[in-house]
Amino acid sequence: xxxxxxxxxxxxxxxxxxxxxxxxxxxxxxxxxxxxxxxxxxxxxxxxxxxxxxxxxxxxxxxxxxxxxxxxxxxxxxxxxxxxxxxxxxxxxxxxxxxxxxxxxxxxxxxxxxxxxxxxxxxxxxxxxxxxxxxxxxxxxxxxxxxxxxxxxxxxxxxxxxxxxxxxxxxxxxxxxxxxxxxxxxxxxxxxxxxxxxxxxxxxxxxxxxxxxxxxxxxxxxxxxxxxxxxxxxxxxxxxxxxxxxxxxxxxxxxxxxxxxxxxxxxxxxxxxxxxxxxxxxxxxxxxxxxxxxxxxxxxxxxxxxxxxxxxxxxxxxxxxxxxxx
Length: 326
What we know:
By secondary structure, the chain is an alpha+beta fold. The chain has 11 helices and 9 strands. Strand 6 and strand 7 form a beta hairpin. Mean pLDDT is 87; it is low at 11-30.
């Protein structure tokens, strides 16, 4: 688009937004312009659509706090708007930055991959898109835009990140409290659910199981057969846990056991538990070797955020952007 045509297009968009924006309250009534990025328009409907998944979560979480709900929802709308602005900036950079345009075969491959992973087959995809009022061409463009966005983010942000051992060690030394752990036990547990608070059969079964284990049966195998807990298929393995992870009556027993000791059945109103402490350790600070990978991931995320902001800020400086009603 020639520069004079671009200026005229922007002028028209500004007029429309300035005079019409006051009459737009929400995308489900009348759609309106929320922002213009170069020659791309971001509407209330687009922001509303991006915010919808978060809105459902927020309504469930803050149903009894309408003021907080409104505040959180407005923040989510703002985040969605900024995400759409960033996407528009990146796509404009792709279109005007001299990048080689992707062939149709790439888009075809994206669609085929998406059919397999999301829809299963093309017929289901077409029916789903029709139900959502989306054409195949719109869907293809959405996939391509997201592919381009991800590719340029990777090219401009992620590829240049290298975290040196010195940075990892510096972070570790500067955040000692992050790596402190309380007393821990390496725990296995058999969980037997009771049919009612008065159920005595489950307690009798737990005593029988504990007796077999003390006579030499494998705790892991018995847990795999009898336990009804979420770790049944892992032999009742809870790994290393702190006292705060467990219910008080369970934590008190677990941390009173010695390494290699099995508990007597612990009877509660809803379940009966048998525990085995494989190992114990006192409160300590995790050594650098154990947390090096986690620190590196944290530093990468921080550096990605910094480089992403720097890159997006650079795109904003050289691109026309106008917000309305934000």
